[in-house]
Structure prediction request, 257 residues.
Amino acid sequence: MTQTTSASRSESGTAPPLVTMREVQKHFGDLHVLRDIDLEVDAGEVVVVLGPSGSGKSTLCRTINRLETIDSGDITIDGSPLPASGPGLARLRAEVGMVFQSFNLFAHKSVLDNVTVAPIKVKRLPRREAEALGMSLLERVGVADQAQKLPAQLSGGQQQRVAIARSLAMQPKLMLFDEPTSALDPEMINEVIEVMTDLAREGMTMIVVTHEMGFARRTADRVVFMDAGRILEVAPPDRFFTAPESERAKDFLSKIL
Ligand code: ADP
Ligand code: MG
Prediction:
């Protein structure tokens, strides 16, 4: 494999990748949305997925926690195939946190309850422990003082930080972010990006779909560029942004930079 198409940054080959996608195909009816997807993500790695609208970025993320099934190919996490159903699937969803454009908090629950509900229900953590964990996570994302409020009383940036804390409460191995700042007013984008940057620095494995090119440049280990369901390029950000190889990537960058 050449450097650009190499699926993994790992040179040593000792630690197995955390996520492996092999020849993944996905259709929506006649639409071939994921084509021959091969990707490996190492533990601790930050992969930013870029590409035009409709190129399959969200679908790619959603296949990894099985919000979408695949037609063929393999996806493994920590060497195990994704469970199809039952307790295995619930465990997978806990291990793979996902943060979307819309924050999807429980509107009728307090901020703290939003963060503790899954640890209590899924992990059977005693309430007291769950609340201590929840408060420490709200602290970490800078919204501990909002713990007793309802989500609607918070700004969009604060709500998205709560959504991140809620995912972290399940101690995920991997975090998927699908345009987490796209619904935010511009002045709130940075506070969410900062939380994501801290998380990356602390070693979280992350797959991030974003239009925040500053984040991609500074924080990504690798950029994956998608077009029409295919991965066209995989490169470190300094190379991708200065010397993209494909015409499609050049065209994409010329429109956004
Ligand atoms: P991106 O996130 O890069 O904008 P998506 O993964 O959301 O792209 O979508 C890829 C393609 O699949 C698009 O053409 C989109 O319209 C289509 N698509 C996405 N979800 C569905 C669905 N549930 N049913 C049918 N088509 C879909
Ligand atoms: Mg999308």
In short: The pocket of adenosine-5'-diphosphate (ligand 1) is lined by residues 28, 31, 33, 51, 53-59 (CB under 6 Å). The radius of gyration is 18 Å. Strands lie at 19-28, 31-41, 46-50, 72-77, 80-81, 96-99, 174-178, 205-209, 222-227, 230-235. Residues 186-201 form the longest helix (16 residues).
